[in-house]
């Protein structure tokens, strides 16, 4: 079942998530510049799945309890949304670069706030809209993106932002009935299966140093998504969105 609501804890978890994701993005950009995107994401998800299965196996009820859900379609769709979003964003890093990609992607908190009402029934007051809007403008001032944000390729991070916003909303929706552990389990296992079906066709050997970067990417990926899932479990989606800008 879902945990009690704690907005302060949710904010701290969102800040932690943003910091971890910032490190993850830099590593992803490096690896995607050397290897196929689908292979990189696939290997990352292998670790993710192994980790969530190991964690579930050590808890009371084991894997069966972690996988138990009354909303398997929602959980499966969430996981598939996430692997799609990750692949799209990593491609964007290679085509536009980190700065321009993030300048476009930072609209996702606005999308979450706009959709949290119709999707989740959450009220988004003017204070939250103001905080999110000011944060968005502040990010653009800090990043000072070039004309790359006006290229047709900018639609790629925009699509990624929409997918990530929808993933966040469905994570919040799933948390009403499922625990963070259950959502974490489904995210890792379904994502690993989905990415293997795609990435196995693009396998290529990696150098020893890059396996080290891959290991770090796996750790940051698993950590970031657990803290994000936990964040949406304890706080309203619209309440924590202004703090997503800490990623920049």
Task: Describe the overall structure.
There is one protein chain. By secondary structure, the chain is mostly helical. It has one domain. It is 77% helix and 0% strand. The chain is built from 11 helices and no strands. α4 packs antiparallel against α8.
Task: Output the keywords.
about 250 residues; 11 helices
Separation, N- and C-terminal Cα atoms: 33 Å
Extract low-pLDDT stretches.
none
Helix content: over 70%
Q: What is the N-to-C order of secondary-structure elements (H for helix, E for strand)?
A: HHHHHHHHHHH
- Based on secondary structure, the structural category is mainly alpha
**Main sheet attributes: strand count, strand direction, barrel closure:** none
Query: Beta-strand percentage?
Result: under 5%
Name the overall outline.
Answer: globular
The rounded Rg comes to: 17 Å
Query: Could you report the average pLDDT, rounded to the nearest whole number?
Result: 82
Number of domains: 1
Number of helices, where a helix is a run of at least 4 consecutive DSSP H or I residues: 11
User: What is the total tally of β strands?
Assistant: 0
Describe the secondary-structure layout:
Layout: H1 7-34, H2 37-57, H3 62-67, H4 72-96, H5 98-105, H6 108-120, H7 126-143, H8 155-174, H9 180-199, H10 208-234, H11 237-240
Helix pairs in contact: 1-4, 1-10, 2-9, 2-10, 4-5, 4-8, 4-9, 5-8, 6-8, 8-10, 9-10
Quick rundown:
This protein has 248 residues and is mainly α. The protein is built from eleven helices and no strands. The protein has one domain.
